[in-house]
Amino acid sequence: MNTVQPIPDSAKGLWAQLDHLRDELPAHDMPVTLAALLYLRWADFQEAEQEAIAAFDEADYDPVLPAALHWRSWYDLPPHDLPKLFADRLAPALERLNNSRHNSLATHLHRIVSAVKDLGRLSSHALEELIHWLAEQPFETPSDRRALLDVFDALLDRVLDKSFGEFRTPAAIVNLLAELAAPAPGDRVYDPCFGMAGLLTAACDHVLRKGKDRFSRNGGPGLMVSGVELNVDAFVIGLTRLALAGVDDPQLELGNSLERTPPNNPQQDGFDVVLANPPWGMRVHPAGLDHFPVRTTDTTGLFIQHALTQLRPEGRAVLVVPEGFLFRGGLERKLRRMLVEQHTVEAVVSLPAGAFLPHTGIKASILLLRRGGLTKHIRMMDAEFYFEKGKGRKPATIQPEQIQKLAKEVRTPTPSENCWDVDIESLVKVGWDFTPKRRDRSGLSGILDSLRSEVDVLPLKECCKILSGRTFPRNQLLDEPPPRPTAREQALLFPETNTVRQRTLFDVPIIPYVRIKDVQRGQASRGSSWLSPDAAASVDARWKLKAGDVLLSKSGTIGKAGVARNGAVGAIAASGLFVLRPDQDRLDPHFLLAYFDSSECRAWLDDKARGATIRHLSKRILNEMPVPLPPLQIQQRVATQHREHGVDMLAFLTQLLTQGEDDPIAQWIDKAAMGLPLDVDAVDDPLDLDPLDRLASNVHEIRNLVAHDSRGDSALAAWILAFNEAVSGLRGVRAIPQGPGLLSVLQESIRALKATMPLIKGHLPNEAKARSLTRLVSTWLDRACSALLGKVKVVVSANTATLPVGEMVEITLNIHNQGPLPLRNLNISTSPDWGGGKTTYLAE
Q1: N or C: more exposed end of the chain, with fewer CB within 10 A?
Q2: What pTM value is reported for the model?
Q3: Domain spans of the chain?
Q4: CA 457 to CA 195: how far, in whole Å?
Q5: Which fold does the domain 1-159 belong to in CATH?
Q6: Does the domain at residues 456-482+508-658 carry the CATH identifier 2.40.30.10?
Q7: What is the 3-state secondary structure (H, E, C) of 367-422?
């Protein structure tokens, strides 16, 4: 589906013809022009078949077009007659079909009239070239027409520019959507903005591939395909693609699907499947939107509601949405809540950045919905693992086998590393944010639960006043402080005797403006801008920063914190910052700063932030953030250790409160983590196993210390012994060649590592670090196995280099497996179909 196909000779011939016509036929007009010709030939083929059927049944057949306007009657006319045929005869005949809605072929022919008129404006030479090429192409069988569809799609890939991006979804996403929707024979499938019919043809292909049955010519018993499209050029291209794909009678409309009202009887008239990639970032006028429950003017929200109203009860919709829809507030939040409470949100699949290049770099996701029901939880998936990143402006792609794995994982009840479930209570806490982002990575709650017997743990709002920064227009901000009047300027010849006077410019203070970039190394000591005198005069004194206020970034970079001091006292914080004013009888500002800087607290803030490209932390979330409140003396001691030695505040606090000693296992984990990447996804080659080889060798020393040196009282003792055993097979792994032996070692280590996780009982910082190290190594090994399994290289060679014309020849194909692993159940087929074979085992 996404594999690179060889360019057929027919496509090369077409490109040669079109290259000669570029002066007359611009590249962006080529697809519509060729689509009109292809559809006219297809319509003639349909009419010929209907005539033959009527003759066989001894019945009358009334053709849609007169015989003289059929393709077979005019394709070989003299070139100088062709422009006149299209402009003066064929186009008017198609115009007259405007009242033939009872006949779908007539209706569709009427809708291509604008493209036919454009054909009439071409020169006789251009028409002769195009018609001659098309007349030479086989057209009689479904395979012939499918081959022409491949040629036509190759042309679309070659000439469509960015302006057509909204009408065509990349092949990788099209195939993924079809697999997730999983239409079955007999289903009614609908696309409310079908563009060039990529999703509808993919749905047809899915049924053919799964059911191995061809469609009948009237559209059943296969899929019954319907769609609406507003753009006439996209409509013509989509109609033609469906015809070539074998859909003889699609129910297509030219118009605005958002004006289509819900069916009166959804059970009878509703669709089984809705597939759509609605236009992004468009707004519509609110007039005429009364039939939508949530009257947003954003097209994404409207198409989602429209899709649900067009479904039968329990019907399913698979829709592409821009990432912003998943977390924005206002009416979009209201719509997300409605989806959960009145329908079934089955899954949200986050697509990788670049999936829609070169047309747009906006990140997107896929929504899987069912009409009606009640959402109990939503399956979230980060699909980046399954995609291959494109080079330059090429889109990210996904191979067919990865599409099937992804779809299977979405439907599998058991969560995994890339796939997890979110319950409704969790959605409520994050404001119905649908963003597929792990919010369970932070161990903060577990650590604080372990400390509740020693200290109070309260929501931040109960021990700290939380304010928001202020926004000022750009013209009220200065790059330099306004000049102060000099003493000479302020001197008065005669002293004032009346002490009551009007306030002057000289009375206005100089007020710095503190932005996120001004928070450095845990403090904000100055601003990088200043308020103009007019802006400074309007400042409310309550907005000014006080010594000891803690600034926390809430947009973009989440969780950057600093204490206001020196030149920042009296300043105004920018809107990208929260101003936290601790109750200093209960909460030390520097302790709060150290808390924000702890790894688990940063992870908690990152979990709760919403947004894809630009992150945002809401005040409502920050209000409920849990904060430990030990005695002030301990707070100050923890803050000092953090400031002077950079210790993790939670780890040190836990040690102080539990009277624990330094744990050598924890020290070893810290040292081991320094030799490993923070994120396995950042590893270019997961089969470069040198770091894991070193880790497996180094763990033996701490294992011996625990086993033989009376260190068994550590909470991590059982884990380190099991961890050592699990990775023991990785010692010397760098020397194992890629093959079945290496795969066996990696898989055995993965199995053993999973068994070590239950041995980590608590949620204190050291235990969280052990858990993270285990997950990191397991994930690396998983990626290494996937990379090894993906190295499939099959070389095919024939026993002859040439084929004599007109003779029967037997050809022997030799299949060589040049990959590192043996292959099972290998099927071999040829195109054209000259034979095939299969083998249950092919050694490496």
Answers
A1: C
A2: 0.65
A3: 1-159, 163-438, 456-482+508-658, 664-789, 794-842
A4: 55
A5: Ferritin (1.20.1260)
A6: no
A7: EEEECCCCCCEEEEEEHHHHCECCCCCCCCECCHHHHHHHHHHHHCCCCECCEEEE
Place of tokens 């061809």: 214
Which structure tokens are listed for 197? 């019919």
Pull the structure tokens for residue 587.
């909460």
Phi, psi dihedral angles at 179 (to 5 degrees): -65, -40
Six token digits for residue 669: 């984990």
Token pair, residue 514, equals: 């503190």
Q: How many CB atoms lie within 10 A of CB 420?
A: 17
- Tokens 């010849």, residue located: 493
What type of residue is 632? L
Q: What element of type H or E holds 841?
A: strand 836-842
* Burial environment of residue 653 by CB neighbours within 10 A (0 to 12, 13 to 18, 19 or more): buried
Which of these CATH numbers, 3.20.20.150, 3.40.50.300, 1.10.238.10, 3.40.50.150, describes 163-438? 3.40.50.150
What are the tokens at 584? 């200093």
* Averaged pLDDT in 10-residue chunks for the chain of 844 residues: 48 69 76 93 92 85 91 93 93 89 88 93 90 91 91 83 69 94 94 95 90 49 86 95 92 92 82 94 82 91 95 96 90 94 96 84 92 93 90 87 94 89 89 83 79 90 95 91 61 50 56 92 90 90 93 88 92 94 95 92 84 77 92 91 84 71 76 80 84 88 78 74 90 89 91 90 74 90 88 82 74 84 84 78 82
- Both structure tokens of 306: 């429209």
Please provide residue 380's backbone torsions phi and psi, each rounded to the nearest 5 degrees: -100, 140
Question: How many beta carbons lie within 10 A of that of residue 555, not counting itself?
Answer: 17
